[in-house]
Amino acid sequence: MPKIVFLWTDVALWLMALSALAYVWRVRRSPNLRATWGRVARDTPAMCSAVVLVAFTLVGLLDSVHYRPLLPPVPGAAAGAPPVYAPVVKSALDGLLSDTVLTRPEKNYSQPLAANLFLKETMVMDGKPVRDYPRLRGAATHLADVEKEHTGDVLRRLAIGLAAGLGVALLAAAILYACLARHAGSASEAASQLLGGQSDIPWRAMTVTFTLLCLAAGALAGLSSGYHALGTDRIGNDVLWQALKSIRTALVIGSLTTIAMLPPAIIFGIAAGYFKGKVDDAIQYLYTTITSIPGVLLVAACALMMQVYIDNHSDLFDTSVARADLRLFLLCMILGLTGWAGLCRLLRAETLKLRELEYVQAARAFGVSHWRIMTRHLLPNVAHLVLITVVLEFSGLVLYEAVLSYLGIGVDPSMNSFGSMINGARLEMSRDPMIWWSLMTAFIFMLALVLAANLFADAVRDAFDPRTRRYKPSRLARLGGFLGRRPALAAGPRPSKSGEAP
Prior knowledge:
Layout: E1 3-5, H1 8-29, H2 31-41, H3 44-62, E2 66-68, E3 90-91, H4 92-97, E4 121-125, E5 128-132, H5 146-184, H6 187-194, H7 203-224, H8 239-275, H9 277-292, H10 295-312, H11 320-338, H12 341-354, H13 358-365, H14 370-378, H15 383-407, H16 418-425, H17 437-464, H18 475-482
Antiparallel strand pairs: 1-2, 2-3, 4-5
Helix pairs in contact: 1-2, 1-8, 2-17, 3-7, 3-8, 3-17, 5-6, 5-7, 8-9, 8-11, 8-12, 8-15, 8-17, 10-11, 13-14, 15-16, 15-17, 16-17
């Protein structure tokens, strides 16, 4: 049995996942929350984005289960000797990708789907030095004649991957159809909801999005069975493997930093708006001072102090992964404790309005304590602002991590992240010929994650904020209007014909 390793960010990420499940259970028991999230569920771009976000989350959670493999016993060791574990920490995602082309490094750059290195080297052939592109040692090793077999082999693996992805998508669609038929009680009704789009929840659009994801994943998996599908970087590591490992870093930065900034923002924001006076002045002075300091300089100073502490206490870490993980965790705390001023200012303004309403004044007149008024009357009425800010801040923090890593004050250099990929590719773009695949991969993965988060955040904002909520007719109403159907008249006396008594 391997030894399970509990990293700081692993525990935090899984606790957030369990908290999300608990919130889903609470939503199912609350009619108001269920109706509000129902408006989100009727938004087609939001639900398609939710499918993409779930896929990214599953990859991140798989990469958040770490362990140390058990080493074989030393020859001649005693029967009761304690087990010895490898010093290398792996994740469940590493275990799934082990013994594949993704984990076989090359000597240097290689283009996507290439069979040779990107740079020429001096080789000895038939006793003579020759400058040529050497063969890869971890990919395309099954090809005897590269010029004749390469194109056909790539197309064959691509077709197999697409077929496997389509099979998974069809299986998921069949399961969804069975569930809809059981819920609706009619197979024709389920078909109209899934294929015809005659449902408030956009099942058809979600199915199409999931199918495209399955096809993309299947194509990459099929090509990666024999090639580096997206090429390798300067030290020969597979670019697709780096992108998959960077998803966890982006999720940790986006979610854990947002959670870290909530306590000071909520406490100071509500307290400043409720008590006013000297408390409000002190809190305003505090967050005004913080926002006056350039954010990058403040984060850089805190990150450098953190790095000095980690370097001076290296004996506290048994592996390099634990050291890099603690740096990522502390970076999230630093970003959270230096970025709460915006939400605090927003909550203060909302609390200033709420404290003058009748129910708050009545509670104060009846002698209810200040703490109870803030927790039972004010906090639930500003919860929509907190939720909207949490979702909106996620995508901004993912992009902010890329900027920090580009400046050299982000995550540990040994940890994969989109910012590290962009930082490593900045000099590659000036080469001739250009090395473009590392930057393109980081751009595509970040675009998919951030765009999905932004679209989902827009729907959450429209659903929870009554001031920006727009009227959107249901899908069935829009379909009826498109087909020329008129809405049914309200119940009441029918108009009489001319000449007839009412």
